[in-house]
Write a structure and sequence with these properties.
This protein folds into two domains: 309 residues, 4-Layer Sandwich (Purple Acid Phosphatase, chain A, domain 2), CATH 3.60.21; 186 residues, 5'-nucleotidase,  domain 2 (Alpha-Beta Complex), CATH 3.90.780.10. It has 13 helices and 26 strands. The strands form six sheets. It has a seven-stranded mixed β-sheet with strand order 1-7-8-10-11-13-12. Strands 5-4-3-2-14-15 form a six-stranded mixed β-sheet, covered by helices on one side. Helix 10 runs antiparallel to helix 13. The two termini are 44 Å apart.
Length: 507
């Protein structure tokens, strides 16, 4: 196999960690996409870092060879991140004793310089195989792989990351060079197996199981020969060992040699911990997902609870400030929430830019549910946690249609009430787009309200970058929404959004 000079030169920097114990079984506990969920989720009561520690400590006491691994996106999603900018999450990662960590895309949300400062005291080993970080603020903080001794066996770990272009805001990853994920992973795994003579290779990834923009974990497994286990993240898929035979989320995928590669991923928000028991003689893997729920509360560590408490008081102070009411429940990912988000952006765009033809919002920009009844300041901030602003663009219909096709490939996103779209879910293409009941004209210029992340090509909507910026909002989006609730100006569909889908798949 041909290995690039970049990969080869980087690989020589790997280190060998002293043995943990004499055995041929390795237990890997893993998490992904915990997204600042320090406390249990207020919608279903699951998760919480104190509960996760109970499970981790219990397994470490019961097993000889245990590694704790995280597959990225440990920040962004709750007020802990908005208020404390990752300090709490980083402290908890050290308290739980993570051994290996990789980057997710949300690690870059506050820019690469702040990320470098945040990771300065990480006690875990930081890995990045297909990112060249040598010219970035993260230089010398990450290794391309590591090798761990387990009894008389060697286990290699690599890290596989997504292409930041189109996913991470330009400027937030300055100096990061992306190398093809599959090529870099296979080159590193080959080196580990054939040069360093490891017995097993574990790929820790943040590329998604079957993402909108491949490659994902399934493809990586199918195209590999030397990767034995994949611990994934990014797509928030819960891969269960008891998945039905016809489920798309299979924990066992056959590689290029016909061997089984076990793939694990745990949804999001730390509601599960994965446990992989790898027999290093046979390379068979037993996979288990452990639910993080209230049954663990009686065993939480009071010392760690006391560490969190001062931060929790700051979070609670915002979560209890009521700013308005909603007439309906708006579950995360629901038509109601998407319609609410798009219509709000539509109205904000009209307020400061006059005539606006339509609005769009990505479902990934709306991060939580809104309940019927009281809406608090904290709910709004965690609904729209990013530092986004409303942008109004002039854009050609052809470029707009290209963005709609990306939205269709993602299973539909939010559009304002005057837009109706039918699309082919298999092809990921729009069949009909109506704006104010009139078919979209590719040659016409439309005035679009959206968020700056999308206007800059985020979520792979690169065609929006061809638009011309007309106006930019003065305030962060969540501040705008809080003000609207407080002023009582949200009425009609903005407090009682339609449950009807505006992007509809055709049969």
């Amino acid at each position: 196999m041909k290995i690039s000079k970049l990969i080869l030169s980087a690989l020589f920097g790997a280190i060998l960690i002293a043995p943990t114990a004499s055995a041929e079984k390795l237990v890997i506990l893993h998490t992904n996409d915990t997204h600042s969920m320090i406390d249990p989720d207020d919608t279903d009561g699951l998760g919480g870092v104190l509960r996760r520690k109970v499970v981790i400590d219990s397994v470490r006491k019961a097993e000889k060879n245990v590694l704790l691994v995280d597959a990225g996106d440990f920040v962004q999603g709750t007020l802990y991140f908005n208020i404390y900018r990752g300090e709490v999450e980083q402290k908890m990662m050290n308290e739980l004793g993570y051994d290996i960590r990789i980057l997710g895309n949300h690690e870059f949300d506050n820019g690469i310089d702040e990320l470098a400062d945040l990771l300065a005291d990480s006690q875990a080993e930081l890995l990045a195989t297909n990112y060249d970080l040598s010219q970035s603020a993260l230089a010398r903080k990450f290794r391309p792989f590591t090798i761990r001794e387990v009894g008389d066996k060697l286990v290699g770990f690599i890290a596989v990351n997504l292409n930041p272009e189109g996913m991470i805001t330009k400027g937030n990853y300055d100096g990061v060079v992306y190398n093809d994920a599959v090529k870099a992973a296979n080159a590193a795994a080959w080196w580990l197996k054939h040069i360093d003579k490891v017995d097993a290779v574990v790929a820790v990834t943040h590329i998604g199981y079957e993402p909108t923009m491949p490659p994902g974990d399934r493809q990586l497994a199918e195209l590999s020969e030397d990767i034995d286990v994949i611990i994934g993240g990014h797509s928030h898929d819960l891969i269960r060992p008891d998945a039905a035979p016809d489920s798309r989320l299979q924990p066992e995928v056959r590689n290029a040699d016909g061997r089984i590669v076990t793939v694990g991923q745990l949804g999001k928000s730390g509601k599960y911990i994965g446990k992989m028991e790898i027999d290093l003689d046979s390379l068979t893997t037993r996979y288990e997902t452990i639910r993080i729920d209230g049954r663990l509360d009686s065993r939480i560590d009071p010392r760690l609870d006391a560490v969190i408490e001062p931060y929790r008081r700051g979070v609670d102070s915002l979560m209890h400030v009521v700013v308005g009411k909603s007439a309906v429940d708006m579950p995360k990912g629901s038509n109601e929430l998407l319609n609410f988000g798009a219509d709000f952006i539509f109205e904000r765009g009209r307020k400061f830019a006059g005539d606006v033809d339509l609005a769009i919002v990505n479902k990934g920009g709306l991060r939580r549910s809104l309940p019927k009844g009281d809406i608090t300041e904290g709910m709004i901030i965690t609904l729209m946690p990013f530092y986004n602003y409303v942008n109004v663009l002039d854009i050609k219909g052809a470029d707009l249609l290209e963005a709609f096709n990306v939205m269709a490939a993602d299973g539909g996103n939010g559009v304002s009430e005057n837009v109706s779209i039918s699309y082919d879910p298999v092809k990921g293409k729009c069949e009909e787009v109506l704006i104010n009941g009139v078919p979209l004209d590719p040659g016409r210029t439309y005035r679009l309200a959206t968020i700056d992340y999308l206007a800059k090509g985020g979520d792979y909507m690169s065609s929006l970058k061809r638009g011309t910026l007309v106006r930019k909002g003065r305030h962060v989006l969540y501040d705008d929404l809080i003000d609207e609730f407080r002023n009582g100006s949200l009425k009609g569909r903005l407090v009682n959004p339609s449950p009807e889908a505006r992007m509809k798949p055709i049969d």
